[in-house]
Design a protein that fits this description.
Helix content: 25-40%
Pfam families: Ribosomal_L28 (PF00830)
Number of domains: 1
Strand order of the largest sheet: 1-2
Largest sheet: 2 strands, antiparallel
Protein name: Large ribosomal subunit protein bL28
Number of helices: 2
GO molecular function: structural constituent of ribosome
Family: Belongs to the bacterial ribosomal protein bL28 family.
CATH topology: Ribosomal Protein L24e, Chain: T
Keywords: Ribonucleoprotein, Ribosomal protein
Distance between the termini: 18 Å
Order of helices and strands: EEEEHH
Low-confidence stretches: none
Structural class: alpha+beta
Strand content: 35-45%
Shape: elongated
Mean pLDDT: 96
Amino acid sequence: MARVCQVTGKTPIGGHKVSHSNIKTKRRFLPNLQTKRFFLAEENKWVVLKLSADGIRTINKRGLLAVVKELRAQGQHI
């Protein structure tokens, strides 16, 4: 699954597209993913993450180092 936020774990979900005549057909709701580069000053290197908009807000709130430590503890290669 390529469309997954690395911080929040958001993935595509399924649902219905509803026409004007109320006919329902299957569709996918994709997360708002962005590829962002962050400079990790403690390690003096750039880190590339695939994040949702909510994941970017999480990094702004908690700090990049805390989020990267948590991701590494989960076993992700950063």
